[in-house]
Amino acid sequence: MRKLLLLSVLLLSVSTAFSQSQDWAVGVEVGEPFGVSVRKYGERNALDISVGSYIGLFKNKQNYKVSNDDLAAVGIMFNATYVWYVPFFNERMSAYAGPGVQVNSRRYYPNRDVKSVHTTNISTGPSATLGLEFFFGQKPTSLFVEGGGYLELIPKIFYFNPTLSLGLRHNF
User: Fold this and answer.
1) Do residues 106 and 119 lie in contact, with contact meaning Cβ atoms separated by under 8 Å?
2) Are 149 and 17 in contact, with CB atoms under 8 Å apart?
3) Which of 11-20, 26-35, 40-49, 51-60 has the lowest mean pLDDT?
4) Between 154 and 47, whose confidence is greater?
């Protein structure tokens, strides 16, 4: 957990050092994953930190690990993504893309009737994001749609989970 916290602080420091803008955004995303994001905008880049949960939208329990639980592939996730963006339509819309890293925690129940017997799996790997963000006229709100994927390297090598989310951000 300390390594994750240090990585977050390092990524935020690097983003602040290279950016000149002081614009921030906080938002909620619905889809795969479902969660909350904080974004620090730079000149033509941003650092996006998301915390949320997979809801099993694109995967089922047979895709990842054997479990007698209906929520076998569902878990808590932390994602840090560094994106570059290109504004267009008088800066009312932006396209963005970038690489990131993701850490997940999933819990498995061999017997769905016995909730006291479970295993917990921590996984990590690279992620990628591609999205569009629309900024409303005089309001500090933006609407975004983004997709991408997460490629798990530890413990299940090359397990791929696609992502697709729709959300709102409050920019300040």
Assistant:
1) no
2) no
3) 11-20
4) 47
Q: Which residues of 137-150 are buried (b: 16+ CB within 10 A; e: fewer)?
A: eeeeebebebebbb
Angle formed at CA 73 by CA 71 and CA 32, multiple of 5 degrees: 100
Which residue segment(s) compose the domain that 32 sits in?
2-171
CB 131 within 8 A of CB 146: yes
- Degrees to nearest 5, angle at CA 25 with 88 and 22: 80
pLDDT tens figures, 69-96: 555 556 789 999 999 999 988 888 999 9
Task: Examine residue 99 and say whether the peptide bond preceding it is cis (omega within 30 degrees of 0).
Answer: no
Answer whether 47's CB lies under 8 Å from 38's CB: no
Identify the CATH number of the domain in which residue 89 sits.
2.40.160.20
d(CA 165, CA 147): 6
**Total number of domains constituting the chain:** 1
Give the H/E segment covering residue 7. Answer: helix 2-18
